[in-house]
């Protein structure tokens, strides 16, 4: 019988291919650098090929090493899925669950969601990560996280998408702006306005531009921000108008009397909030239970 590599050794190779750095790879695997280096050498002996070229400052994964690392990552994910599957025998939402959320959802929904999750599923050990959509999609696909909460669609056929609810867009403007006299806003009224958006990379920016373009709007401010909180403060200083998702309006405007929020006329622009996970994940029951708690939050 041939000697086969261990899952731990494959984890070492996956981490090294991801970081191209022995020290950082060791940190990812929670081992010492010498332990990881020894594991890679043992793996090279098992395969009979050079997996990485080492210098004092850099690590270069060899072409065959890259191919093996890609398959190793798949095997490690399968092993992690087996562990997750065994955990589901104790019931839904028990044990460790890695969840990601985008910045235009996390600060507004999670404070309501987390107490409900803790009350209903006290044995859940939830690890949270907040970052942009493209990164979350990649991390779900590679198994770094189990599930992500974001605006759909994620547009990848390797993922399952579960829509949860619609989140309308709202116009936020200085309280002194003439449009505050309107109960509902016609998008065409924004033609000559200075519209502030998030910086590139945020899906809410893309969704806002899609709505504006469909409404015949093309003028956007050269100012861009990394968060909705920053944008609303700029609007409060009378430097333009912006769109906010409905879930963010109370937190971002409630204590600022310099700001006014108004809904758009029907059909109101909105985004679909939902969960994504890998198609072959064994934790579908967990994700469906999570979706129910989110919808009720």
Automatic annotation (TrEMBL):
Supply the Pfam families for this chain: HTH_1 (PF00126), LysR_substrate (PF03466)
Q: Gene Ontology terms, cellular component aspect?
A: protein-DNA complex
Q: A single Gene Ontology molecular function, please?
A: DNA binding
Key words, A-Z: Activator, DNA-binding, Transcription, Transcription regulation
Q: Which InterPro entries match?
A: LysR_HTH_N (IPR000847), LysR_subst-bd (IPR005119), WH-like_DNA-bd_sf (IPR036388), WH_DNA-bd_sf (IPR036390)
All copies of the HTH lysR-type domain together span 5-62
Please report the name of this protein according to its UniProt entry: Hydrogen peroxide-inducible genes activator => OxyR
């Amino acid at each position: 019988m041939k000697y086969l590599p261990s899952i731990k050794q494959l984890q070492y190779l996956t981490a090294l291919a991801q970081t191209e750095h022995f020290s950082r790879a060791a940190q990812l695997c929670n081992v010492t650098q010498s332990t990881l280096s020894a594991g890679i050498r043992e793996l090279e002996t098992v395969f009979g090929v050079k997996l990485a070229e080492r210098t004092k400052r850099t690590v270069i994964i060899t072409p065959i090493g890259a191919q093996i690392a890609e398959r190793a990552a798949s095997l490690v994910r399968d092993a992690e899925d087996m562990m997750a599957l065994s955990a589901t025998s104790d019931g839904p939402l028990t044990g460790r669950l890695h969840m990601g959320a985008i910045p235009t959802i996390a600060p507004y929904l999670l404070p309501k969601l987390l107490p409900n999750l803790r009350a209903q599923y006290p044995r859940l050990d939830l690890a949270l990560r907040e970052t942009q959509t493209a990164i979350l999609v990649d991390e779900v696909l590679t198994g770094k996280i189990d599930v992500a909460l974001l605006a759909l669609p994620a547009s990848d056929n390797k993922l399952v998408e579960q829509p949860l609810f619609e989140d309308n867009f709202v116009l936020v403007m200085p309280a002194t702006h003439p449009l505050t006299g309107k109960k509902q806003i016609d998008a065409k009224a924004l033609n000559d306005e200075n519209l502030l958006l998030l910086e590139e990379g945020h899906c809410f920016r893309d969704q806002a531009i899609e709505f504006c373009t469909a409404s015949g709007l093309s003028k956007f401010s050269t100012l861009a921000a990394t968060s909705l909180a920053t944008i609303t403060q700029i609007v409060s200083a009378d430097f333009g108008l912006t769109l906010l998702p409905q879930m963010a309006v109370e937190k971002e405007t409630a204590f600022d009397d310099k700001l006014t929020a108004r809904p758009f006329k029907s059909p109101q622009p909105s985004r679909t909030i939902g969960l994504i996970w890998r198609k072959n994940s064994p934790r579908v029951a967990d994700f469906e239970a999570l979706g129910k708690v989110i919808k009720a939050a």
